[in-house]
C-alpha cells in the first residue's frame, strides 16, 4: 500500500487516538501514552526513589540545641537515636514549638522528654509503595516518616519521607507525562 | 452477526486491551481506563478542589497568641489580615519557632514584625491548576499558599493550599484509578 492509504486496522487506531493520520507522509505516533502509563508510573513509585536524607540527634541533646539543629539542617523533623544509632524517637517542628512556649528551660530539657517514642512512631521502608507511605502521612497526621531498615537490635534509619517528597512525586508524574 | 463473532474492528480493540472477548457472551468493557485517563485526571485537578479553610489573625496579635492560635486551629500556617480582612502577611510554624528561641518577649512582639509580607508572599487562585500550585510550593520552599481572590483593594483570602492537600490529591489519583 502507499503510505497514505488508510488501512482498516490503522483507521481504528486513528479513531482511538493512537495515531495521527497525515496524508502523504504516513502515520505518526501521536505522542499519547499507552492506556495505563500514568497509572503504572504511580504504582511503581517507591519510597526509595523520593526519600530525603535523615537528620538525627542524640537523646540527650537539649530542646534548644535541637531547634537550632533543625534550622541549620533546614528540615521539619529530627530523628532521635541511641548510642547504637538506632531509632528511639521523632521530633517534629510542632513538638518543638509546643515546648518552646512552655514554662520549661529549653537549655536544660533533653529531647527524649518531649519526643514521640515507639510504638507511636509511624515509619516506612524504602521498598514500600509511595502511595502507601503517602496514606500513612495523611492518616497518622505526621509531616514525615523515618525510612527504616529493621535489624535484630532495632530500626536503623536510612531515610526521611516527607510531604515535600510526595509533592515532588506528584509534580514528577505530571512532568513525566508532559502535563 | 452473532454475539460471539469477532468483527475485525473489535479484534483490534481486543488486541489493544480495550475489550475482553468472551466467546458466546459477547464483548465486555474490560475495566481498563481509556488512554489518558490518569493524565487527564491530573490536568483537571484544580486548587479549589483540594484547598483547606484559611485561618487568619490580625496584624497586632502577639507572637505568643499566634502560636497558641496555630495549635488551637491545628494548622501549620496563619495568614495575617488588616482591618479590611485583606492579606498582609504569612506566618509559618518555622517563622514562629525561630522567633520563640530569640531574645524577644513573645507576649509583646506583634506578628507583623516577623511575618512574610508582599511582594514575598507566594499565592495561588482557586482556579489554578493543582500542578502549577504544587510547583510553587516546591520552588519557593513554602508549606502553604494562601488562595486569594484579587479585588481593587487587595487580596481577599479564600483558602489555604498545603503540601497536605497535594499529598491527598496524590492519594486520590491512585484511588480513583484503583491502585
Automatic annotation (TrEMBL), chains A, B:
CDD domains associated with the record: CBS_pair_CcpN
Pfam name, any one: CBS
Taxonomic superkingdom: Bacteria
Entry keyword annotation includes Transport: no
Record key words, sorted: CBS domain, Repeat
Sequence ranges assigned to domain CBS in this UniProt record: 50-106, 115-179
Protein name: CBS domain-containing protein
Organism listed in the record: Ureibacillus xyleni
